[in-house]
Amino acid sequence: MLAFIGYKFLEFIARVIPYPLAYPIARLAGRLSVKAGINLAPLKKNIAMVLDLDKDHPRVHKTATTVYEHWLQNVTDFLKHRNISKKKLKERIEIEGFDHLGQALKKGKGAVIFTAHIGNFEWGACRIALEFGNTWGIGMERRFKPLNHFFESKRLSKDLNTLYSNRALNIFKILKSNGIVAIPTDWDPQNKSVPVHFFGKKAKIPYGAVYAAVKSGAPLLPSFIHRKDKYTHFQVIGKPLDLVRYQDKQKTLNENRQKMIVVLEEYISKHIDQWEMFHNIWAE
């Protein structure tokens, strides 16, 4: 209940404050959050593990501050979601790779998109939904239903549907209807994944996207977005992964997850200063 009231209050503030003022406030709030140490320990650990540096290294602290600044600007965008028309959203996101997704959908088995918590990933999923329709983003269900509706309605205003992770079996119905399912794959909220090598260390990287693609026969494609400048973003949709299949199901999942991890590592490395991972993903 309190979280819902808080979000509604922040939404009101974000909607009445114009962007030229809202973004500086967001960046200031980011710097203050770092000083206050809010969720800072897991964020710095994740950055340090990727960069192979001590968590107290100055570069790690500087990167964490930049992540916070970007993240709260993205939160501002999300809170202003209803103020931004579909046309304006398209204008603010430069995108390449639509042809990869279009060709994948021609197979009639839908498409599974794997992504990470880089940049304004909410807008990235919305941009795909505006182009292709029948697009669903995996999300976490909250106990307070009005809070779920708060997030769902914002996504639906840009044609993005929400599929909760505890109802993931519906993925196959969506894919059967030639729909698109977007799944963040750099964090396992259920903490059940078997640890695998990630940036040379052991991490719990989920294979739900791989499982859905292998089981359904749907193509598995990467898509990532990052802030290009103050108001615009750049998004890429990559080619489908060349998935392998063996009689041994676990071997199939493991090898294809490793293919996915290679791509995740590439994009996280490139945009570590926009990797908004505030959870400890490591098994060590």
Notes on the protein architecture:
This protein is an alpha/beta fold. It has one domain (2-274). 50% of the residues lie in helices and 15% in strands. The chain has 11 helices and 9 strands. The strands form 2 sheets. The protein has a 7-stranded mixed sheet with strand order 1-9-8-2-5-3-4. A two-stranded antiparallel ribbon has the order 6-7. α2 packs across α4 (58-79) and α3 crosses α4 (58-79). The protein is globular.
- Beta-strand content: 15-25%
Question: Which outline best applies?
Answer: globular
Quote the distance from N terminus to C terminus. Answer: 35 Å
Count up the domains: 1
Question: What's the total number of strands?
Answer: 9
Supply the number of helical segments: 11
Helix content: 40-55%
Find the structural class using helix and strand composition.
Answer: alpha/beta
Largest sheet: 7 strands, mixed
Q: Give the oligomeric state.
A: single chain
The helix/strand series, from N terminus to C terminus, equals HHHHHEHEHEHEHEEEHEEH
Radius of gyration: 19 Å
Unreliable residue stretches:
none
Strand arrangement, major sheet: 1-9-8-2-5-3-4
What is the arithmetic mean of pLDDT? 93
